[in-house]
Design goal:
Layout lengths: L14 H10 L8 H14 L3 E5 L2 H11 L7 E5 L8 H5 L3 E5 L10 H13 L4 E7 L8 H11 L3 E4 L7 E2 L2 E2 L6 E5 L12 E5 L2 H11 L22 H31 L6 E3 L6 E2 L5 E5 L8 H11 L5 E2 L15 E2 L3 H8 E4 L7 H14 L3
Parallel strand pairs: 2-3, 2-4, 3-14, 4-5, 5-8
Antiparallel strand pairs: 1-9, 6-7, 6-11, 8-9, 10-12, 12-15, 13-15
The protein binds pyridoxal-5'-phosphate (PLP).
């Protein structure tokens, strides 16, 4: 039986056509018509003034932090419950990540704990340069509350919407709230360019700077002239061709991922002690990955690992939820404001196969096997 992945690339009708166009017109370069078109699709879809396509989400976050002035010795407050790439670019900037735990409704950064952390850090004399908010698994963070904290202290928010293209908070796209938002088109995301990312912003100056420094910061002159440090972070016109085709099918991809979530929920409804991350009022998740939580009152701790191993023998990929960054050895020296939420989620949660290319019968089979392992 072929492997059932958590989330694998799912191509539509036209990706190849746009890539072939790039070949036939010899736009095999980090710029070209596919890049321009893809950026317009992204900004129109998310409702921001402009999008700059880049070669990864990590690169996009690095530029966002750097261009918002994050410097050596600054503190950047970052959601702890996330993938490490939300925080690595803080280190690239020479800044100090300080981790903030999540709240139970969305699993994203807790606005109250964030406010306490800011007050505490300010008291310690730290300069807080930015806040990294993540919309994890596609679930929007509480942007109203977070924006209020951001405004109160005058600290910009950067949204890591790598997993949340298509998610909405009060009908506004994730990635469009902060000073800057970032997207990822890595192979496992809801749409992919084989590898890529984007920076979103309403700030035209920030966008212009992003275009400039992402392409080696070449100043206008007949020779190569540089007055600042540049990066080689642009997305190629080949990859943008894939992205162009993927944007055409994004609404279908979201619909399918949401249907998969509903299928798991219905299929496991009879199992006492398994719960799902529900959408609070006004929040719309793209349901990038469906996750289940095993209540410790019903299941032994470690159930997720025995279940994962059982499904692995059937060539079904599952994975624990993100290991909180405050538990990562690489960040062992970083400060954390911990309320226990992400520690508990990591100990009791599992991500299930959620790719939009998985059929109803495959999902049904995963449900049957989960129940079988639990003796149901
Ligand atoms: C995938 C991901 C990133 C990094 O994106 P890349 O394009 O792989 O560099 C950052 N943050 C989160 C939350 C992600 O899931």
């Amino acid at each position: 039986m072929s492997r059932i992945w958590l989330s694998s690339p799912h191509m539509g009708e036209n990706e190849k056509k746009y890539v072939e166009e790039a070949f036939s017109t010899n736009w095999v370069a980090p710029l070209g018509p596919n890049v321009d078109f893809f950026e317009k699709q992204l900004s129109a879809y998310t409702g921001v003034n402009a999008a700059v396509s880049l070669n990864s989400g990590t690169a996009a976050l690095h530029l966002a932090l750097s261009l918002l002035g994050v410097n050596q010795g600054d503190v950047v407050l970052c959601q702890s419950f996330t993938f490490a790439a939300s925080a690595f670019p803080i280190i690239y900037c020479g800044a100090e990540p300080v981790f903030i735990d999540s709240e139970a409704d969305t699993w994203n950064i807790d606005p109250q704990l964030l406010e306490q952390a800011i007050e505490d850090q300010l008291q310690k004399g730290k300069k807080i340069a930015a806040i990294v908010v993540v919309h994890l698994y596609g679930m929007p963070a509480k942007m109203n509350e977070l924006n209020a904290v951001s405004e109160k202290f005058g600290i910009p928010i950067i949204e890591d919407a790598a997993e949340a293209l298509g998610s909405r908070y009060n009908n506004k796209a994730c990635g469009s709230f902060g000073k800057a938002g970032i997207l990822s088109f890595n192979g496992n995301k809801i749409i992919t360019t084989s590898g890529g990312g984007a920076l979103l912003s309403n700030d035209e100056i920030l966008i212009a700077k992003t275009r400039h420094v992402s392409a080696q910061a070449k100043d206008p002159a007949p020779y190569y002239l540089h007055t600042q440090v540049g990066y080689n972070y642009r997305l190629s016109n080949i990859c943008a061709g894939i992205g162009r085709g993927q944007m055409e099918v994004l609404p279908e991809r979201i619909e399918k991922r949401r249907a998969i979530f509903e299928q798991y929920k219905a299929g496991l409804a009879s199992v006492e002690g398994i719960s799902f991350l529900e959408e609070p009022n006004g929040l719309f998740s793209n349901r990038w990955l469906t996750t289940i939580i095993f209540d410790e009152n019903y299941f032994k701790l470690g159930t997720i690992e025995t279940l994962r191993q059982y499904l692995e023998t059937l060539n079904i990929e599952t994975r624990p939820l993100w290991k909180p960054l405050h538990q990562q050895p690489v960040f062992a020296n970083c400060q954390t404001y911990n309320n226990g939420v992400s520690d508990r989620l990591f100990a009791t949660g599992l991500c299930l196969p959620s790719g939009s290319n998985l059929s109803e019968s495959i999902i049904e089979n995963v449900i049957v096997e989960i129940k079988k392992h639990l003796g149901l």
